């Protein structure tokens, strides 16, 4: 598929493969995918990238298609998908587009909710900032922002004294 193979094909007798332009060490895989080696190992622990068998001569070789899989994971992360959600996307790669669309729509709804929460936080911080008025040189013992953060309960900006 487009995302890249997670395993070895039947053309790999005994799981051993010689180095070629289609097989990469973990270091080369990381460089090609523009991540570090620890990222690849982390994805393996999370089940997003398969770990190839270690042949008798010691080096594991990843199918070249794994580069696309790692790039897919990174791009999905930049779009805000969690690794759990990315795992779901990878499982859906052989399914129907409607399933992927549904997952993306759910993510969009969660992002919109987060944006509303961030906007509310932004407004609260702006109100707190306005409470300072001209008191920028006042000691912190008389700072309205500190007072609001120290008060029990929800942070509610006191009325500006300006």
From TrEMBL:
Organism listed in the record: mine drainage metagenome
One Pfam family in the UniProt entry: MerR_1
Keyword set, alphabetical order: Activator, Coiled coil, DNA-binding, Mercuric resistance, Mercury, Metal-binding, Repressor, Transcription, Transcription regulation
One GO molecular-function entry: DNA-binding transcription factor activity
Transmembrane segments: none
Function: Mediates the mercuric-dependent induction of mercury resistance operon. In the absence of mercury MerR represses transcription by binding tightly to the mer operator region; when mercury is present the dimeric complex binds a single ion and becomes a potent transcriptional activator, while remaining bound to the mer site.
Coiled coil spans: 101-128
HTH merR-type domain mapped to chain residues: 23-92
InterPro entries: DNA-bd_dom_put_sf (IPR009061), MerR (IPR011794), MerR-type_HTH_dom (IPR000551), MerR_fam (IPR047057)
This protein's name: Mercuric resistance operon regulatory protein
GO BP term (any one): response to mercury ion
